[in-house]
Amino acid sequence: MAVNIIINGVLGRMGREIAGIVLADEETHLVGCVEERGNPAIGSDIGSFIGCGTTGISITSSLKDIHVDTAVVMDFTAPDSTRALLEEIEGTGIGVVTGTTGLTDGDMELMEKVSKKNAVLFSPNMSLGINFLFYLTKITAEKLGDDFNIEIIETHHKYKKDSPSGTAKLLGEIASKAIGCSDNETIKHGRTGFIGERPLKEIGMHSIRGGDIVGDHTVLFAGSGERLELKHTAHSRLTFAQGAVKAAKWLHLKGPGFYSMHDVLGF
Asked: What is the distance between the alpha carbons of residues 54 and 162, in angstroms, rounded to a whole number?
């Protein structure tokens, strides 16, 4: 049976990519598209925005307008929108796959709370390659220990609103834990002025913004006389959208819980 999919923020960059994939996939069924209240596209067929003709699926302003018992909502929006979505689905038969970045600790606590009754999957980046980078960062930091300094560099398009990226934050958390520290103790966001010698456990975090760059993430391990770079480059948002749809197919079979792409991929 096809998985019922609802897309929150369907007219965003990721929302459009996901809509195209879901409509073309025999294992998924697009049952609803949501945009913020007041958007002039409300009531229009989603097909006219993604170049696939009439689909029979109109854009609505609320999940309440979509009448299904079970579904997975795919959400790549902004913290306020994700927060409202989580509050609305709590206790229903609806799961959520979200990759929204810029979330606060309070947002994460809300996600944990909702996952007691709903299936919730969160990952700041859903590509296979980037999740393998998470794994490689962990084992490399553990093995190299204090002999190498760690720097994280992320590059994105000029329209990205949060900094550093959610992916870079997670890389920082993974590396910090691997060397026995918390990210609050170790992460240094950029450097300026007369800052003195680099502390042993410091992890540098640097954000670059410009043009239409989809997303680059590099974890640099700098030692004495050598360095190692782990790098992932995304060529298209299609990569993230395909991973997200894969996650939704996996999640619809799961009960309440808080999941990640590591669960989907079996890492």
From this structure: 35
